[in-house]
User: Which sequence fits this backbone?
């Protein structure tokens, strides 16, 4: 029976003034689609109690936080005292709007400083507002921590990019015999490890899950697939997928996306069709994954077939993300003018990311004329992005047009835009080593640079030649090579070769795209030292092995490098 019909019945029977009857109806109406009915019912109550206010405040905290806060203010003006249920609802609303309204002081004033329910809400509130120190203070001062207390603090750390602190707190929690983690906490931890890209930590959590006999549920299994994918171990993602008894669309999409960014393009497409055979309807995340696979694999016809099926087969309108994938697909294949035409006839205004994708393709294929047109568009829609200036300058450098290149860089300076420094991370044991391009802050930088210089000379013998066109300024050839020598990923790989004496896979995380010179360098290293090297850059994973890369040699602003001869350097 609907809220309206129930209210009509109450009025007809004369029970509409009875608080008990109205309260039952208010509970039924406290949903987003019936919120206006809830407010009307509430106004019929002659003397609403704290419980009644809580119903309304809670209902609005999720979808209309400002209304929830307004109700709380009115409640206090009417002299109604909030209880330990009221404050968590209000804190949730304030977290959505990132405002405090002196609630912590009110918590202390009302004597809820020892109430676990309220304290947990305070931790979540401060975490949502980015106040990690305050959240930790509340957590440390909580006299009786339950599972929610620990989960809230761990989530606070993870959501504010304090991943290692989250993992350390989880280890500390295990020392308390009374608290056992649940699935939600484990999923939060896997999210932290996914961001770190630390495979060993990921395997440690996975073993913990198996040791504690957690069921491999859809949510937990999907989180493991995503974690392994982001930690550069797509084979482990496949293994988890195969072991899962039940899967949903998110599970299939996670593996399709993982296969795509790892260069397993045909496997991703095959999995897409297998998913459809199993009765699952793809969503936009799934389409993004399979279109990225088609783009990275050069599967033009397959990409258009999938793209057209969005509307023809599923009656869905492609969004900007799917158009962006198609622009990338055409651009990678060298069909630049077709990509430009597709951008111009999109049903919505192209985003800067789409124009940037096309600019990257123009740089890769050295189409100066179109690159200039696209660069002008980017100046209109997003004139402050450093990468656009660098990309355009690389086109001029590749054509030896140093005057034009200098003009682009001068414009960058006039607009007070600085190039974001590249850095690379590599894990050695429990320590994360960070390398910044051209920086000497690493304690072993001199040793690494000496080794790197000798390594480059040895690689020249087997065909490595620095790609000098990406150097920002027109300087002497020797200085160009010097500028390229100390890019962060080169430093990280050299460090790994110095420190890892076994044949373990070298895994490096990078904050921006790998440049074509470093791409060429690492290909030669993988071939000469017979080492597998995985670089996780901003967009994808590059798996280097025996002189080849999973990306099929498509790198930013660069060239396609031929397959290398089988040559070994004896260490």
Assistant:
């Amino acid at each position: 029976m609907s809220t309206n019909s129930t209210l009509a019945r109450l009025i007809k029977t004369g029970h509409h003034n009875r608080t008990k009857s109205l309260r039952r109806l208010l509970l039924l109406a406290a949903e987003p689609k019936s919120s206006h009915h809830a407010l009307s019912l509430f106004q019929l109550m002659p003397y609403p109690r704290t419980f009644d206010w809580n119903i309304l405040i809670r209902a609005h905290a999720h979808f209309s936080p400002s209304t929830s806060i307004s109700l709380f203010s009115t409640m206090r003006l009417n002299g109604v005292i909030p209880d330990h249920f009221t404050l968590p609802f209000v804190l949730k609303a304030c977290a959505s709007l990132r405002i405090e309204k002196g609630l912590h002081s009110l918590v202390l004033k009302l004597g809820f400083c020892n109430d676990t329910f309220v304290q947990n809400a305070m931790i979540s509130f401060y975490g949502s507002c980015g106040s990690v120190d305050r959240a930790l203070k509340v957590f440390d001062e909580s006299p009786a921590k339950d599972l929610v207390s620990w989960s809230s603090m761990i989530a606070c750390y993870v959501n504010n990019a304090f991943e290692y602190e989250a993992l350390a707190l989880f280890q500390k929690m295990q020392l308390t015999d009374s608290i056992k983690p649940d699935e939600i906490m484990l999923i939060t931890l896997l999210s932290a490890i996914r961001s770190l890209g630390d495979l060993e930590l990921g395997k440690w959590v996975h073993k913990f899950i198996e040791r504690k006999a957690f069921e491999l549920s859809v949510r937990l299994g999907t989180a493991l697939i995503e974690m392994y994918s982001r930690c550069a171990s797509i084979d482990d993602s496949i293994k988890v997928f195969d072991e899962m008894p039940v899967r949903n669309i998110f599970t299939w999409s996670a593996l399709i996306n993982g296969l795509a960014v790892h260069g397993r393009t045909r496997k991703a497409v095959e999995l897409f069709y297998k998913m459809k055979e199993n009765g699952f309807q793809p969503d936009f995340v799934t389409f993004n994954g399979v279109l990225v696979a088609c783009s990275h694999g050069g599967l033009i016809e397959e990409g258009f077939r999938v793209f057209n099926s969005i509307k023809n087969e599923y009656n869905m309108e492609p969004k900007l993300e799917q158009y962006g994938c198609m622009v990338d697909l055409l651009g990678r294949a060298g069909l630049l003018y077709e990509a430009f035409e597709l951008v111009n006839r999109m049903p919505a205004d192209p985003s800067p990311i789409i124009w940037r994708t096309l600019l990257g393709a123009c740089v890769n294929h050295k189409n100066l004329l179109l690159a200039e047109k696209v660069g002008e568009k980017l100046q209109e829609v997003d004139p402050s992005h450093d990468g656009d200036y660098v990309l355009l300058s690389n086109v001029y450098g590749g054509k030896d047009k140093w005057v034009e290149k200098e003009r682009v860089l001068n414009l960058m300076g006039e607009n007070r835009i600085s190039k974001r420094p590249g850095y690379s991370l590599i894990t050695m044991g429990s320590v994360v080593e960070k390398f910044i391009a051209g920086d000497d802050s690493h304690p072993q930088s001199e040793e690494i640079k000496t080794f790197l210089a000798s390594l480059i000379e040895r690689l020249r013998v087997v065909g490595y030649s620095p790609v000098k066109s990406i150097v920002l300024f027109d300087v002497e050839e020797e200085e160009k090579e010097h500028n390229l020598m100390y890019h962060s990923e080169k430093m990280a790989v050299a460090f790994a070769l110095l420190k890892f004496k076994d044949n373990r896979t070298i895994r490096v995380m990078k904050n921006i795209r790998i440049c074509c010179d470093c791409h060429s360098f690492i290909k030669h290293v993988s071939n000469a030292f017979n080492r597998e090297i995985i670089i996780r850059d901003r967009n994808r994973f590059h798996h280097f092995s025996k002189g080849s890369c999973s990306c099929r040699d498509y790198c930013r602003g660069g060239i396609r490098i031929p397959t290398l001869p089988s040559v070994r350097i004896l260490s």
The mean pLDDT is 86. The longest strand covers residues 423-428. Strands lie at 423-428, 431-436, 506-510, 533-536, 541-545, 548-549.
